[in-house]
Design goal:
5-stranded mixed β-sheet, Alpha-lytic protease prodomain-like, Nucleotidyltransferase, domain 5, 11 strands, Alpha-Beta Plaits, alpha/beta
């Protein structure tokens, strides 16, 4: 059984209960039983709305809705709350009418039987909805469970009212109407609590359970967590995480740590669909979106502080060391050349602040210089691929003689 089949069962049960209570309530002239029948009728409408919301919420992401349609299910939960409020107001109004008119109830065994069946059936539905609502994190189904629980409790009140009012004298005549009013007030109270939860969820509320798992994971992996934000809308959670790693790590190695963090969290937190990880120490940001169906997609951004001279034209950079051409791409210095056509606009040697022996830092510094072309004799496959991703032209030379015109 799943939340859809639970909703269908609820729809059928509420059709039966609503018709039974209304017919019997009118037969015995009971305002409380008629009120309870109206409540069951709104249960039917709300269960139908929840079912439609669940089905529509499962629609896959598309171009206009890249994060899916999960919020539709929560909106259907808001519809349940609105119906609860409307039914509560009607029940209170009808209860006061019964008190003023001093309606006399004609109690019978059929009325008792209908109410008892209603109590047990509604309580069973409430527990079933709560079980699958919590299991599948469906706020709409949880709200509908509250509706069924309110119906069960109101039916207990109706049973008491029928038995007391059947005594038929003095203040006992008012019992049926008074209980109808108290049922309406109780439903209003439940509507307020459910309404706050639904609205919080629509606005977006933090997911404390997901935050606890993320903090525990980072502690186990010795990852410094500097910022953590979660937002839960409907049954899905998104998160933005900022971590701090050893600044001596190469950007590629830092991004591997970030990617593993994303994958592990997506595996451990089933309702986590949208992840952004920013590496504070390396100014990088990676994200991943997991749709309901189909293949997810990731994205990566790198925030680089601008270094070197202001760019004035087509920019080429050449690795340098001690004012001489340096064959390896990862170099202590770079010759920066800006030109327009054949005319050189500026030429300047810039120190590479990221350079360390054995860890050239060429890729990291190259991006901060914002070049259009890199000229080098030797470069690794990883850096080659990154330049290609960034749209930077790579020119491999065989000897220094090929660029002597720029070195003089």
């Amino acid at each position: 059984m799943n939340k859809e089949s639970v909703s269908i069962f609820s729809i059928l049960a509420n059709i039966f209960l609503g018709i039974s209570k209304l017919v019997v309530g009118l037969m015995i002239n009971s305002a409380a039983l008629v009120a309870d029948g109206i409540h069951s009728a709104t249960d039917f409408v709300s269960s139908l709305g929840v079912y439609i919301g669940i089905k529509m919420g499962k629609k896959p992401a598309d171009i206009e809705h890249p994060y899916g349609h999960y919020a539709i299910e929560t909106i259907s939960g808001l519809g349940v709350v609105i119906l609860l409020i409307i039914s509560a107001i009607w029940i209170i109004y009808d209860g006061f009418g019964s008190i003023i008119n001093k309606n006399v109830i004609q109690i019978g065994s059929i009325g008792i039987i209908v109410v008892v069946i209603s109590i047990f059936l509604n309580e069973a539905m409430a527990r079933l909805k709560l079980k699958y609502g919590r299991k599948e994190e469906s706020l709409a189904l949880i709200a509908d469970a509250g509706h069924s629980r309110a119906d069960a409790i109101s039916s207990v009140g109706v049973l008491a009212g029928l038995l007391i009012a059947s005594l038929g004298s003095g203040y006992f005549l008012y019992a049926d109407g008074l209980i109808a009013v108290f049922i309406g007030l109780y439903i209003l109270k439940e509507s307020y609590s459910l309404g706050r939860e639904v609205i919080d969820n629509l606005i977006g509320i933090r997911d404390e359970k997901a935050e606890s798992i993320i903090k525990k994971y980072c502690q186990q992996k010795n990852i410094s967590l500097t910022s953590l934000k979660t937002r839960k809308i409907g049954q899905i959670t998104s998160t933005e995480i900022t971590i701090k790693l050893d600044a001596r790590l190469k950007v590629e190695e830092a991004e591997k740590v970030s990617k593993k963090l994303q994958n592990d969290l997506l595996e451990q937190i089933k309702n986590l669909k949208y992840v952004i990880v920013q590496i504070e120490s390396h100014k990088t940001r990676q994200g991943y979106i997991r749709p309901k169906w189909g293949k997810g997609f990731g994205f990566r951004q790198q925030f680089v502080l601008p270094l070197g001279p202001e760019k004035k034209g087509y920019r080429m950079i050449i690795p340098f060391k001690d004012n001489k051409f340096y064959s390896d791409f990862g170099a202590p210095e770079y010759l920066v050349i800006d030109r327009k056509g054949e005319r050189i606009l500026q030429k300047q040697i810039v120190q590479n602040p990221f350079f360390q022996e054995g860890m050239g830092g060429g890729m990291r510094f190259a991006k901060s210089l914002n070049p259009d072309e890199v000229i080098t004799q030797k470069i690794g496959p990883g850096a080659t691929e990154r330049l290609k991703e960034l749209g930077i032209k790579l020119t491999i030379i065989q000897s220094e003689n090929e660029i002597k015109e720029f070195l003089s």
